[in-house]
Write a structure and sequence with these properties.
Elements: E1 2-7, H1 12-24, E2 28-34, E3 54-58, H2 64-74, E4 78-81, H3 88-93, H4 96-117, E5 118-119, E6 122-123, E7 128-134, H5 158-177, E8 181-186, E9 188-190, H6 199-208, E10 213-216, E11 222-227, H7 228-241, E12 246-250, E13 255-257, H8 258-273, E14 283-286, H9 301-307, H10 315-328, H11 330-336, H12 341-349
Parallel strand pairs: 1-2, 1-4, 2-3, 4-7, 7-8, 8-12, 9-11, 10-14
Antiparallel strand pairs: 5-6, 11-13
Helix pairs in contact: 1-7, 2-4, 4-5, 6-8
Bound molecules: nicotinamide-adenine-dinucleotide and 2'deoxy-thymidine-5'-diphospho-alpha-D-glucose.
Length: 352
């Protein structure tokens, strides 16, 4: 039985990964270490309650004693690090926590894995550390071309700088100690369980409640959208078959300007709910994000050629599935937007 330490899996991508893995693999053990920050929610994991293959541990990836204890207890074959502070806007107002979790947390996991997996002069067989990273470490594209795995790192935001730092540490553990590692760098994910501070769930929720839709700047920044289940599949494939020390970019090859995404959501919700108050009059162009990257784009040629991965869900299908999921999970939305959500949201937008 393969044993995984998965971190941050009460969040958006991680919870989807838990569902994906338990459906795909019969004989696995997932130990899910999550601090349960504002972005982590046990509601996201309700569907796996009672499944003995998933064990939830509340804790911090920076807690060395706890991570060492988990390694001693479970003798992991694979670590997949999803845990992060993940929101660019929050990193602009509060960068320190991004360094703590994204950089120090990653180094702690690497060090604990090294202590547990290094035997004599070598490494125990069959082990792997996989870092879930982001295309934002490459910076911003102009009108042409795509990020490749050899594009130089050029992060701009505190978030992407912390992710790039973490990636450098992962490669340092590979190059210095020979640790078996992979890094995946993915484009923008969308789908169920995404916290409504990110573009798509925020816009769905606001439109449904006839609140204004804050589009940063001219709305022509481009993101490359990938349905979250396709990302989960890619991570599983890299964990299984990725070549030691390699980086794999994961993208939908599906670039859209933000304004197009917002218009699509509005027209879909308008038609589906038959609500005449949902229309483009709700769009409000607000002050741009500081240091806003203009365009991200990935041609996932390497992961396709080496591992046979490709995005299976078209954007046209994925966005309808996503909107339907949020409409069918009003309780979830109410749950995650209780507490400090409104206060944060008001703070975030009061000057825009
Ligand atoms: P998220 O914010 O939804 O979830 C992050 C999870 O990490 C939460 O459950 C949170 O409680 C947990 N966490 C935060 N700090 C922690 C700590 N110190 N110790 C333990 N757990 C902690 O994030 P997401 O969107 O699911 O992103 C997951 C990973 O994928 C991140 O590493 C992110 O950088 C990367 N990524 C995200 C996207 C995207 O579009 N969302 C794209 C590419 C890469
Ligand atoms: O590219 C991968 C990255 O995608 C991940 O590494 C990050 O963790 C994830 O949060 C995401 O980052 P973005 O900054 O691209 O995602 P966000 O949903 O915050 O914003 C998407 C685009 O929409 C971006 O150009 C900013 C814009 N935007 C966002 C919000 C929240 C708006 O115009 N209005 C908004 O209210």
């Amino acid at each position: 039985m393969k044993k995984y330490l998965i971190t941050g899996c009460a969040g958006f991508i991680g919870s989807n990964f838990v569902y994906y893995m338990l459906k795909k693999h019969e004989d696995i053990q997932l130990v899910n270490l999550d601090k349960l920050t504002y972005a982590g929610n046990l509601e996201n994991l309700k569907g796996v309650e009672g499944d003995a293959r998933h064990i939830f541990v509340q804790g911090d990836v920076c807690d060395k004693a706890l991570v060492q204890k988990l390694f001693a207890q479970y003798d992991f074959d694979c670590v997949i690090n999803f845990a992060a502070e993940s929101h660019v806007d929050r990193s602009i107002t509060n960068p320190e926590i991004f360094v703590a979790t994204n950089v120090m947390g990653t180094v702690n996991l690497l060090q604990c894995a090294k202590e547990a997996w290094q035997q004599g002069g070598g490494w125990a067989p069959g082990k792997k550390y996989l870092q879930v990273s982001t295309d934002e470490v490459y910076g911003s594209l102009g009108a042409d071309g795509f990020f490749t795995e050899t594009t130089p790192l050029c992060p701009h935001s505190p978030y992407s700088s912390s992710k790039a730092s973490a990636d450098l540490f992962v490669m340092a553990y590979h190059d210095t100690y020979g640790m078996p590692v992979n890094i995946t760098r993915c484009s923008n994910n969308y789908g169920p369980y995404q916290f409504p501070e990110k573009l798509i769930p925020l816009m769905i929720n606001n439109a449904k409640h006839h609140k204004s839709l804050p589009v940063y700047g001219d709305g022509m920044n481009v993101r490359d959208w990938l349905y979250v289940e396709d990302h989960c599949k890619a991570i599983d494939m890299v964990a299984e078959g990725g070549r030691d020390g390699e980086v794999y970019n994961v993208g939908g090859h599906n670039e859209r300007p933000n304004i197009f995404i917002v218009q699509t959501i509005l027209s879909q919700l308008h038609d589906q709910l038959g609500d005449e108050e949902i229309g483009e009059n709700l769009i409000q162009h607000v002050t741009d994000r500081l240091g806003h990257d203009r365009r991200y784009g990935i041609d996932p040629a390497k992961i396709r050629a080496e591992l046979g991965w490709y995005p299976e869900t078209s954007f046209e299908l994925g966005i309808v599935k996503t909107i339907n999921w949020y409409l069918a999970h009003e309780d979830w939305m109410e749950n995650v937007t209780s507490g400090n959500y409104q206060k944060y949201y008001d703070e975030m937008y009061k000057n825009r």
